[in-house]
# Entry
Amino acid sequence: MLPNFLIVGAAKAGTTSLFEYLGEHPQIFTPAKKEPKFFSYGCYPSPLKGPGDDLVESQIVKNFDEYKKLFDNSDAYPLRGEASPDSLYYWNGAIPKIKKILGDVKIIIMIRNPANRAFSNYMHLIRDGRETLNFEAALDAEEYRINQNYEFFWHYRACGMLSDAVYSYCKEFTNVKIIIFEEWIKNLNEEMGEIYQFLGVDYYPFASMGQVHNESGIPKNLVLQRIIHPKGFSKKVIRGFFKTIRLYSLAKMLRNKLRSANLDKSTKINPITYERLMSFYENDIIKLESCLERPIKLWKI
# Structure
């Protein structure tokens, strides 16, 4: 049993929420690990050297046997899928590996206004206590960080260059569904109906409709943040405890609500920085619109 669909990215474009929604569908199997990163592994040097990257790297699924185990007990489900957003960023290496192992699987790509995506990415690392610079300084440090082999998630500006990746997935796979994040959250019920139709499953009114997963923001209470967003050994212990007492789903929902309540999400991108970023992305957006064969109106300044 291997996946017959993949959510390949982009990072901070709603992939976690979509993964959680699809996981509620009775015809769809999703593994407990959201981002195995199996198909991108080997596309970059190891070890990763950014703050906290050692924990990220320790959770990567690096071999095929381990990857197959993610889908144990999935034989009763007609659809099986996983979500690894770095498969879009490392498209050049990930695509051949996907085709070799899975064949012509269905591909879901979520894309987002690249300036807002970059800022959300930055705020995510602020949330996790990994980023210490202000956004503008972090953008200036990006080239240095890339050269120092920081994880792709630190590549705020580079992760927004989408056109080549989207074009390549559309060229190499028969069934590709492209979701524009801003349209998706605006018309969630309708958009989810289209995704179900694309995957070939019945419509399902999922319980967590509209609930946002993996939000970015500044923690209001650092002690509470460490409790609800544990790392390393403590994370494994807490997860194992709740799974043992069969309350993992409930604990996950409560943690998500607590995390959201503990985040200050009012910080916005500086308008001048936003305009500069959108100017940087202008040509790539034009190429992306050509690939989609329609304008992305909600991305206009």
